[in-house]
Amino acid sequence: MRQAGTHIASSAETTLVMPRHVSAQQQRQISHLGQAFQPRPAASKSSWRELVGVKGQIAATTIERENPLVHAHVVPEGSYIIHDFRCDRVWVWVDSNGIVTREPRIG
What we know:
By secondary structure, the protein is α+β, with helices and mostly antiparallel strands. It is built from 2 helices and 4 strands. It has helices at about 25-35, 55-65; strands at about 5-10, 15-20, 70-75, 90-95. The strands form 2 sheets. Strands 1-2 form a two-stranded antiparallel ribbon. A two-stranded parallel ribbon has the order 3-4. About 15% of the residues are buried. Residues about 5-10 have low confidence and may be disordered. GO terms for molecular function: serine-type endopeptidase inhibitor activity.
């Protein structure tokens, strides 16, 4: 059973209902917080084998379009990189001609 309240925001997954004693300003603030914490869409790809042999900038653009939660970084072969794992980063390794030499993957 639903309690009486004022409906202030809804999406396909969430509906916020405020008690009637909450001010309009408080409702706006709470509604804004609810929107900020909506779940992100699941990313479908974590590696791009099909991009080996493609120009690095084209590969980076493709990666970011197919998975908007990551940033692709074009890196020349032999460059030093930091070795920490990050789920929002993809290294795109390229040769001296700017062609992808390794399978880009999240990390």
